[in-house]
Each structure stands twice: as structure tokens, then as C-alpha cells.
Specification:
Elements lengths: L5 E2 L8 E11 L5 E11 L8 E3 L5 E7 L2 E2 L5 E3 L5 E3 L6 E9 L9 E5 L2 E5 L20 E9 L5 E4 L2 E7 L4 E7 L11 E4 L2 E8 L5 E8 L8 H18 L7 E7 L6 E2 L4 E5 L12 H16 L7 E3 L5 H20 L2 H23 L11 E2 L8 H34 L2 E3 L1 H11 L9 H4 L5 E9 L4 E9 L14 E8 L21 E5 L3 E6 L7 E4 L8 E3 L4 H10 L3 H28 L1
Bound molecules: serine and zinc ion (ZN).
Length: 599
């Protein structure tokens, strides 16, 4: 079936809000019964009595609206599988009963069974395969969940939030009841049931409260979970310290199974991972594996605030949670390394990944802005552009505003949008207002695809003792975007003197030198900056620490590259210089070789 195109510009608010969802599952591999009770209220701003509930591959048993069971003529099931209810003009209680077949579910979304374990994946649009529901992230509700299942097959029954009740039903069946105290969109719903074992610990939070941390796995994997638990504790402590964001639940669970189809998912209080992203012992894992596991655990945990407490209004805003969370994950990983050289190695790795994957995406037929304008299938937009370039866009804000300014902006963003569904514009707005900056031009990073080039020209005037840097930006056309407007590019620069020291920088208009590196703000197609008191010809260190996701065009001489390899006090650029130098040497060797064979 050809899917329709969804456009960002066509966003409309939901017709109805859901305040509460109460779900009861009777688990069965082929016939799981789902009973859902929705507490619904019309959105006063959009008076429309029709209420659309998404549904896919569901067997409907009954619908009751305010105690009236609907006849077949009182609702419509659309071709898509969605359910349309009419006349929901008052706050209402809607009860729906349906049956699903988790064994037959091969869509990788919704509830499925694999090796006798039941589990869910609801991002982006998987909840509609569990029950009829307005499956869109701007509908946020409080969930309670009861799971009934046979003890022998499913000794462990988990869902989001806090465990409020558990017990026996009869000799064969038992149940658990879960209550998530926070509103959430349906894509963060999770259920896991099966034969699992856990490693657990009570961990003291900064606020003095204790939280129960659990890592659930298939019994044979229990010995490989220690590192995961340690990583989770580090991530919790780091978010408290760096961003003042605390764990808000009494219990935080991670489940890792060999059969989870995605890499990892940040469901509220119940993250689900594929085993390969989490399990490790020194006997089987390399240092790189350990670093990767620490990062993925942090990534999913850090979503608790950036993604879950503040979520996305619609899927066009995916980078709002993913770009920001990848950035936070990168900062976490760097802080765990501590040592400046190790941090630089991490930065070099991240940039190499971006250049290999994202630059290629931006230069090809799939090029798209970090916030796309349209999609046919949202699952195709979980890209390196949305994730990794998205993280660079966030990092540029930190570069422009400074760490403190960025923190002020993030605080404001969370204060204003906690418990709601936000947009990328909301994020930019919070950053701008908290720092009294105009970031309207910066918004082009969200709307324009492509990797900008920045051509650098330098001119040293020995008589005046001045050094002029001219930056010219350009960006090739990408599909649907023939012409680009100038980007707002933070371009970090230093000038290194012959002794190998960075020179104090003073622009013509300034009365004194300020610092030995400077973030130039390139906002036009071409701009020049003239530094004074430059008595000897320096070597420039450009776009330090990869200050923007751009390609810098500047022809260093081999001698300058040798010099920067030795002296640049930005370790990222020192490595860049060495890499460029190696490339020059390889080019030279190839040329010599070709020359030799021709003779
Ligand atoms: N939302 C999941 C993540 O954390 C799956 O893409 O990246
Ligand atoms: Zn993520």
C-alpha cells in the first residue's frame, strides 16, 4: 500500500486529549486480550466531535462510551485500520476491548513474542498495534497497566513506572500492576514479560532518595550485566551534576534480550535493549565495546528528560530529542574520560563518524534537513542527519552561548516545557531568550540540508602588523533546495606564532586583546575580521574542535601542517593537521609511483 505523505506545515493539534489510560493485558502468544479505559476530553481549541483512534491489525471486540456499548453502526473502521468515533463532545470514558496476535506480529512494532518473551517497541507508531489510541506524541496521558499471565511461562511481568501491586490470580496465573506517575505519549509505553533474571541495586540519588535500579536479562546472561549497572549509575549521577536533572522514579529498569529488534529504546522507566548493546565481560568484550555500552546506556537514560519529560510535538521534531540526547551522551562520554587527550580522541571519533556517514548522506539523494518537511514513512528518518548532525547543531549552540549560557537555555527549556510536547523552535526560543540572543538565523540549520563549505583566505600585513581572515560560505544544492541562505556558523579560530604559542587576539575595533582563541560568527556569505598587533606571520588554527559541521577549505603548506601537528593547542586540530599531512605524503608517494611506472 502506498503511504500518504505527511507534511510538517499541516500540523494540527489533537481534537481530543487523553488524561488517563488504564490497560489490562491477558497475555497469550496468539490471542492477547487488551482492555483499555481512556479518560478523554475534547480539546476546547479545536471543537470537533469526531475522535480518531489509530489501529493496525487489531481484532475489535467491543467499544463502550460512557457505559453505552456502541452498535456497529455507531463507529467507523477506516481502510487504514483506524477507528473513528463520533459525537465525543464532552469529557468521556471510552472502554475498548480488542485481541492481538503477538506471535504473528512480524512488523517489529507493537507487542511481539520471541523465544517465549513478550516485549514491545512503540516508537514511532507501534502503540496502534496494541490497541486503538490517538497514537501521536502530542497526546500525553498517565498510564496504569495490569498484566495477567501464566506464571510458568512469564514469571516476570514489567511495565513503565512503579510497581503498585502484584499477586496470584489462581494456581497458574499471576499479575502485576504498574503506575507511571508521569504523563507520556504512547510511543514510550513498554511491556516485557518472560523468564528473566535481574541484577539490582538501591542507588542513592543526590536528593537523598533511593531508587531501585534493575538490569533484567535472560538467565544465562546475568553474569554480563555488572558493567551495564555501573554505567547506569554513572549516567544518573552525571545528569544530576551537569544539568541538575534527577531521576524522577522510585524504580528504573533496563531489559536486555537477544530478541529485541531495535538497538535500544528509552521507554519511561523501562528501557529495552538488544543484548549486544549492553552485555559485556572482560573475557568477551573490547575496550571499544565497553565504551559503546556506557554511551548507549547513558543515551537511553538521558532521554528521561530530553525526550520523555519533554517530548516531541510531532515526528518532524525527532531531532529535538535525538540530536539533543546524542549531544548529551557525547558530553557524558567525554566527562567520563576526563583527561583532555582522551576527550579529544572521543571528539575525533565522533567527527570521523559524522564525516563518513552524515556528510555522505548530506551529499547524496537522501539529503534532508535535521528537521524534515515531509515524510511518507517516519521510520526512514532515524538517520545520521537527525541524530549526529542534530547533535552538532546543539553543540554549536553551546559553542556560541558558552557552557553556562547553554545550561541557562536548557534550564529554561525544561522549565517551560516539562510535561508537554515541544518543537525545535521552542528549544531555540528558550536558548535565545535565556541568553538574550537572536538565534533566528541559526534556525536555518533546522531547515536547510547540505554540508556548507567555508573557504578561508588570510592576509598578513607586515607593515600594519595586522592579519585579516576572510571567510566565504557556500552550500551545494540538495534535493528540493536549489539555493541556500547563509548559515550561522560559529568558527573557532586561533593564530599560532613561530614559537608555537597562540597569540592574544584583538580585533581592530577592540581596545585590548581578549583570549587566545575566538569564535567568529559567520552569518553572511562573506565576512572579514582583522586582528591587530600581529607582528609575525602566524599559522591559523581553523574551526577548532570542529566548531561546526562544515568543510573548511584552506590550503596549508606541508611545513604549516608539520608545525600545527607539533604546536596547535587544540588537540582536535593537531590530529587534523597530522591526518592532512599523511594524506599529502600518500598523494606524493602515489604521484612518484605513477611517475616511476610511466618512465
Ligand atoms: N529512540 C531510540 C533511541 O534512543 C530509538 O531510535 O535512539
Ligand atoms: Zn535516542
Amino acid at each position: 500500500m502506498a503511504s500518504a505523505t505527511t507534511y510538517r506545515k499541516n500540523y494540527t493539534a489533537p481534537t481530543h486529549w487523553v488524561d488517563k489510560v488504564d490497560l489490562i493485558f491477558d497475555l497469550h502468544p496468539q490471542r492477547t486480550r487488551v482492555r483499555s479505559t481512556l479518560t478523554v476530553r475534547p480539546n476546547e481549541n479545536r471543537p470537533n466531535d469526531d475522535f480518531l483512534l489509530n489501529g493496525r491489525d487489531l481484532e475489535l471486540i467491543s467499544i463502550t462510551v460512557n457505559n453505552h456499548e456502541l452498535a456497529r453502526t455507531e463507529y467507523a473502521i477506516l481502510d487504514s485500520g483506524d477507528l473513528l468515533l463520533h459525537g465525543i463532545s464532552e469529557p468521556s470514558t471510552i472502554k475498548i476491548e480488542n485481541v492481538i496476535n503477538p506471535t504473528a506480529n512480524t512488523s517489529l512494532l507493537g507487542l511481539y513474542v520471541s523465544n517465549n518473551n513478550f516485549m514491545t517497541q512503540c516508537e514511532a507508531e507501534g502503540f496502534r498495534r496494541i490497541t486503538y489510541y490517538p497514537d501521536r506524541p502530542d497526546v500525553m496521558a498517565k498510564f496504569t497497566v495490569r498484566i495477567n499471565a501464566p506464571k510458568s511461562v512469564c514469571p516476570v511481568l514489567l511495565s513503565n513506572g512503579n510497581l503498585v501491586e502484584e499477586g496470584e490470580i489462581d494456581n497458574n496465573w499471576h499479575y502485576t500492576r504498574w503506575e507511571d506517575p508521569f504523563k507520556k505519549p504512547a510511543y514510550l509505553f513498554a511491556l516485557v514479560a518472560g523468564d528473566l533474571k535481574c541484577r539490582e541495586e538501591r542507588f542513592t540519588l543526590k536528593n537523598g532518595k533511593k531508587a531501585l535500579l534493575q538490569i533484567w536479562v535472560e538467565p544465562r546472561n546475568l553474569d554480563k550485566t555488572e558493567f551495564a549497572l555501573e554505567s547506569l549509575k554513572k549516567a544518573i549521577a552525571w545528569d544530576e551534576k551537569r544539568f541538575g536533572l534527577e531521576l524522577d522514579l522510585e524504580r528504573f529498569m533496563i531489559v536486555a534480550t537477544d530478541d529485541f529488534t531495535m538497538g535500544a529504546m528509552e521507554n519511561k522507566g523501562l528501557n529495552i535493549f538488544n543484548s549486544r548493546c549492553i552485555l559485556a565481560t572482560p573475557a568477551v568484550a573490547t575496550d571499544k565495546d565497553f565504551a559503546r555500552i556506557e554511551s548507549v546506556i547513558a543515551h537511553e537514560y538521558l532521554h528521561n528528560w530530553t525526550g520523555n519529560r519533554v517530548t516531541c510535538r510531532d515526528w518532524f521534531q525527532l531531532t529535538l530529542k535525538e540530536g539533543l540526547t546524542v549531544f548529551r551522551e557525547q558530553e557524558f562520554a567525554a566527562d567520563m574520560l576526563g583527561d583532555p587527550t582522551a576527550r579529544a580522541v572521543k571528539r575525533i571519533e565522533d567527527v570521523r563518524y559524522l564525516r563518513d556517514r552524515q556528510f555522505a548522506e548530506d551529499a547524496g539523494p537522501m539529503a534532508h534537513p535535521i528537521r524534515p518537511e515531509s515524510y511518507q514513512e517516519i521510520n526512514n528518518f532515524y538517520t545520521t542527519t537527525v541524530y549526529e548532525k542534530g547533535a552538532e547543531v546543539i553543540r554549536m549552540m553551546q559553542t556560541l552561548l558558552g557552557k553556562e549560557g547553554f545550561r541557562r537555555g536548557l534550564d529554561q527549556y525544561i522549565r517551560l516545557h516539562d510535561g508537554s510536547a515541544a518543537t525545535c523552535d521552542d528549544f531555540l526560543d528558550a536558548m535565545a531568550k535565556a541568553n538574550m540572543r537572536d538565534l533566528s538565523q541559526f534556525e536555518r540549520w533546522y531547515s536547510q540540508a547540505g554540508t556548507p563549505h567555508v573557504l578561508v583566505e588570510t592576509h598578513w600585513n607586515p607593515r600594519a602588523g595586522s592579519y585579516t581572515v576572510t571567510l566565504t560560505q557556500s552550500c551545494a544544492a540538495t534535493p528540493g533546495q536549489p539555493k541556500k541562505e547563509p548559515f550561522f556558523i560559529p568558527f573557532d579560530i586561533a593564530l599560532i606564532n613561530a614559537k608555537g604559542n597562540p597569540i592574544p587576539l584583538q580585533l581592530q575595533a577592540e581596545t585590548a586583546a581578549k583570549g587566545t582563541s575566538r569564535v567568529l560568527e559567520l552569518t553572511e556569505t562573506q565576512q572579514s575580521w582583522t586582528f591587530i598587533n600581529i607582528r609575525e606571520k602566524p599559522v591559523p588554527s581553523l574551526a577548532r574542535n570542529f566548531s561546526a559541521p562544515i568543510i573548511v577549505d584552506y590550503d596549508y603548506t606541508p611545513d604549516e601542517l608539520v608545525f600545527l601537528s607539533q604546536h596547535d593547542n587544540d588537540p582536535f586540530n593537531r590530529a587534523e593537521a597530522m591526518e592532512k599531512l599523511s594524506m599529502l605524503c600518500i598523494d606524493e608517494m602515489v604521484a612518484d609511483f605513477e611517475h616511476g611506472t610511466r618512465m
